[in-house]
UniProtKB/TrEMBL annotation:
Domain EAL residues, every copy: 25-278
Domain of life the protein comes from: Bacteria
Name this polypeptide is given: Bifunctional diguanylate cyclase/phosphodiesterase
Residues included from the entire protein: 392 to 672 of 672
Amino acid sequence: YRSKARGRGVYTIFSPEMSESHKRKILIANSIEAAIEENQFSLYYQPKINLNGEIDSLEALIRWHHPELGPVMPSEFILVAEQAGKITAITQWVLNQASKELAELMSIYSPKIRLAINLSVHDLRHSELFDWIYNAFQAHSVNPENVEFEVTESAYLDNFETSESLFKRLHNLGCTIALDDFGTGYSSLSYLTQITIDTLKIDRQFVMELDTSERSRLVTISIIDLARRLSLKICAEGVETISQWEYLKALGCDTVQGYLFSKPRPLADIKNQPDYQRQAG
Ligand code: C2E
Ligand code: MG
Ligand code: MG
Ligand code: MG
């Protein structure tokens, strides 16, 4: 049987023995161009909270409402897009949309509000990435000082030289760089001596276990200590309980992010209710 990728007249042949999850992947991969053309993607924003409890910055997180599948999360479709060689189209859409919406965030919060944009490992292999970023900034009059890029350790190390030269250029432009999901990637720390970054984002895994695991607490202490010694800022992701927050605050973690403060929300919601509403946790 066949499935028509919406509005594009592209047919994919599904063989009956193909698993449901494989069919879903193909459908997702084949729907990406249409999703961009038909505005099915949107950006949600999740605040990062500083030690004073104020909103320090926001992270843009992509959302997709697929016409047949309903909501599809980035944890699923980013990987599929990467495997299908279609991530750069998504990245360009994100860069443009985030650049466009930044003006509104500035008017809601402050002209100094900072916006974090995630980059994929595959993006870093494109020598044109800097130009896409630069062009998106130009098109929407973005001050690069308002923008941070989040990239995972593995993305950085996948091609160290290329990543390093890109991040130096972005730095010179005024952007900052955060190393996302820190602690889950490579075991070697030697690259930290050479890399152009501003912030370490402690992975949710460690934060999740703060209340229950002495070892996670010790690793977290060590990561924060390491960051401080390297003059890097530190952000903890996935904070869900008050006790996790208190612990991170006591360690001097610069910013925290998580459902305790706010889930990622669409711009319209943020406009109606700019402040975060801390959950009971
Ligand atoms: P990430 O950049 O590490 O983003 C953090 C993820 O954790 C987000 O999931 C966020 O919604 C979720 N999160 C935040 N606070 C909490 C919490 O307290 N508890 C729990 N359980 N989860 C929390 P999301 O939005 O589903 O994104 C997943 C991943 O997909 C991101 O991980 C990032 O790697 C990727 N991604 C998202 N948006 C983009 C994008 O625009 N471009 C690229 N290349 N990747 C993106
Ligand atoms: Mg991120
Ligand atoms: Mg992260
Ligand atoms: Mg993560």
